[in-house]
Design a protein that fits this description.
The longest helix has 14 residues. By secondary structure, the chain is mainly beta. The chain folds into three domains: 116 residues, Immunoglobulin-like, CATH 2.60.40; 108 residues, Immunoglobulin-like (Sandwich), CATH 2.60.40; 97 residues, Sandwich (Immunoglobulin-like). The two termini are 51 Å apart. The chain is built from one helix and 24 strands. The strands form six sheets. Strands 9, 10, 12, 13 and 14 form a five-stranded antiparallel β-sheet that branches. Strands 18, 19, 21, 22 and 23 form a five-stranded antiparallel β-sheet that branches.
């Protein structure tokens, strides 16, 4: 939780960087106090402490005044020195239970105190356990939440027991993607598994939406919708790299036709990628970070086909169909095309 002292330091730092402009001299005399009371959507008082709140005054896109406060045990926060006679914007930060909220058009009165109410809602929670198909937990995996527009709106990481929780979430329809693809080291033990979605689908188009509803009752903690997932190795795609440069520092990027399913792995010193478990589909493949002694930089080389020189243009890269069996492709050292 941010303390008033910490928030004051943040504000001072922002002023130093010029993110927030220094208040005008007029604010020194024409100011008032704004007291904010948190309420439930029903209008009843919400007595909850620790909600971070920010009040801003913007003019022509520039923040001229900002104040940070934290709600007390009664759900109140006070903003002294607010510029009077102008429209102020109030916002709260979300936490593990409450959704963020905002309110505009607040006007402080010179020399007086104004009271406003801000409605804050309890968010929903998605949680569960991620395991391999054999039942063993998958720790350190990423669980991503996508809305119906395909935008990622939540992210979580599984614990040592494979458990995860994403909160708070607004009511809506979501697809839950279980993803243990991240490779964090050059060790072969970092071999990852392919992604899957809730109900064990391996593609976005066939993934099942889960409908989430925010709580109407205000409990001390939200109760998660239990969405358990499974991941497993699918087909193995290996890239044999024969490019000039330091292969050990290079990455192999697999760009799926569905951007949410992109994949990155490493290349070892011998020029072979670590095994990459991928779901069936079409991918464009690139080598990133293979130092070119002529160019003197680290360009992105895109695959155009076996025994064919790479291209520096993604739009000219070949779509590789994959999924019927394990496959190896050969990235040859030829003059790249543009």
């Amino acid at each position: 939780m941010n303390t008033p002292k910490t928030l004051a330091i943040v504000a001072a730092f922002a002023l130093t960087l010029g993110v927030i402009a220094a208040p005008s001299a007029a604010f020194a005399t024409a100011t008032g106090t704004v007291t904010v009371q948190l309420v439930k959507p029903s209008g009843a008082k919400l007595a909850v402490a620790g909600i971070d709140e920010t009040m801003l005054y913007r003019h022509n896109g520039t923040v001229l005044w900002a104040h940070f406060a934290v709600s007390d045990g009664t759900g109140k926060a006070t903003f002294p020195g607010a510029p009077a006679g102008v429209h102020l914007n109030l916002s709260t930060s979300s936490n593990s239970t409450y959704l963020s909220a905002s309110k505009g058009g607040i006007v402080a009165k010179a020399g007086n105190s104004v009271s406003v109410k801000l409605s804050v809602a309890v968010g929903a929670t998605i949680g569960g356990i991620l395991t391999k198909t054999g039942g063993l937990p998958v720790p350190g995996a990423t669980v991503a939440l996508f809305n119906s527009h395909g935008n990622r709106v939540g992210l979580g990481t599984t614990s040592a027991t494979g458990a995860y929780q994403i909160a708070p979430i607004r009511s809506g329809k979501y697809k839950v993607q279980f993803n243990s693809r991240a490779v964090t080291s050059l060790s072969p033990a970092a071999t990852s598994m392919s992604w899957s979605y809730w109900k064990n689908s391996t593609s976005w188009t066939t993934a099942t939406y889960v409908t989430v509803k925010q709580q109407t009752a205000y409990a001390s903690a939200s109760h998660p919708a239990s969405i358990n997932g499974f991941v497993s190795g699918q087909f193995v795609l290996t890239v044999d790299v024969n490019l000039t440069g330091n292969h050990g520092s290079a990455d192999v990027l697999f760009v799926s036709q569905r951007k949410a399913e992109n994949f990155v792995t490493k290349v070892d010193a011998a020029g072979t990628s670590f095994q990459s478990y991928l779901n069936a589909g079409k991918y464009r493949i690139a080598i990133i970070g293979a130092y070119d002694p002529i160019v003197g930089a680290s360009p992105v080389y895109w695959y155009r086909g076996d025994l064919t020189g790479p291209t520096l243009s993604e739009s000219k890269a070949t779509w590789v169909s994959f999924g019927a069996a394990n496959k190896t492709i050969y990235f040859e050292d030829q003059p790249p095309t543009f």
